[in-house]
Fold this protein.
Amino acid sequence: MTGYDAIVVGAGASGLNCSRLLRREGLSVVVYEARERVGGRIHTFHPADGGPPLELGAQVVHGDRNPVHQLVGPGRTSPVPRRVTARIVEDGADRSMGALGSGRRAPWQLEAMLRRAPGITGLSVGTWLRAQGSTGPEAAAAREWFRQNWAADPDELSAAAVASAHRGDAGGGGGGGDVGESVGEGFGVGVGEGVGVGERVGEGVGEGEFAVEGGFARLPERLAAGLDVRLGEPVRELAHEPGRVTVRTDTGTATARAAVLTVPPAVLTAGAITGLPAQKRAAATRLPAGDGCCAVVTLDRPAPDTVIVFDVDGRAGFVRCTTGRPEALVVAKAGAAAHLRAAVADRTALAALLATALPWTSGAAVLGLAVADWGQDPYAGGAFTAPRAGLEGAAREWAEPVDGTLFFAGEATLTGFRLPWVQGALASGQRAAEQVLKALATRRT
Ligand SMILES: Cc1cc2nc3c(=O)[nH]c(=O)nc-3n(C[C@H](O)[C@H](O)[C@H](O)COP(=O)(O)OP(=O)(O)OC[C@H]3O[C@@H](n4cnc5c(N)ncnc54)[C@H](O)[C@@H]3O)c2cc1C
């Protein structure tokens, strides 16, 4: 049995940031990670021919003041290219993205309105959308937009918590800029999935969307440098008493003065880790992650154009391709994730799904398929946790330390307070590190 100052469970953005900060203060830290790689829901796909990487998890860095820019190193991020043809699939037909804004309110305009809307406490996003008089194709597009950005149905999403998460990421200033203000110059868009061009995300993380040179996985790789990370070691049991934690993996046990659990709540709900207090299991049950599935399909021909497609029909989420490259990337959440999951198991269905979104793929042979099925992944349990109606308090309960010994981080600890993205995960890791340092210092005195 080995003794540490702190054990961190999970080597995603939150766990690695927490571990790095604890190490910097001179603590002995070990990180247990179930997968054979670091990064968790940051997962970069590298084409075999050395072509540009594609993201199977977190897609883009949101905002020019996002801490990711510093953490990956100067000059390693660049704005997501603005010269993109944005299209939609609606009623089975391929159309210009501009159709979403002509004669109706575009989904991103509605989401921006929600951020500033008064009197939304207790309403679901679906109810709020109906109250705006949104009907027909406008309402259908907005509902699917929320599904893809939040991995949850609008009728389950808490309007107040969605608005509050946007404001939280905006640094608490309340406004946070206007998503989709660039509609006139391009296709607007872009809360969430990086279809955006020129939008403002918030005063906290700033504006715009950025890609990390060499792939988003550079972030966890950099954070993990110099840390003692045990890959392929899922934690099975976590027992604690005040001031002492014992962790069991398949290779043995380790003890520490504190532990930080960063696994998504859905992992705990599935029973993967035993020994946690009942109130934590209860809080985890109330924070389910929405469904998500991503695929990179390598075809036998290059794309003629750089395109991003938003599937309003709810079958494919966002689909994109890059001029001269043979890959199509599909990022699907909520109901679309189930469609994509079924399609990757059936090449005919996959070909049909792609041909609707990207007509140039019709008749193309599939040469390769890489899938990240977050909804079926035992170490993720879904894409991320969206704030569901009436459950704003669950995240607070999930984040609450136990006996000054067990601490919690991960995007779900900030559900409803911050957007469920990498910057939130990093912030939660920092908060947990500060809590651990304070608790250990208090015990010493
Ligand atoms: C499809 C998709 C698109 C997204 N797009 C964006 C985007 O564009 N921009 C953005 O900023 N964010 C995006 N996100 C969200 C972002 O990926 C997450 O918010 C962030 O990566 C979560 O980090 P985390 O540390 O909280 O959790 P995780 O990354 O899930 O880390 C938890 C770690 O715990 C490990 N673990 C689980 N069980 C155990 C166990 N029993 N023992 C040991 N280890 C265990 C996991 O393997 C994992 O590595 C997206 C997510 C998805 C799925």
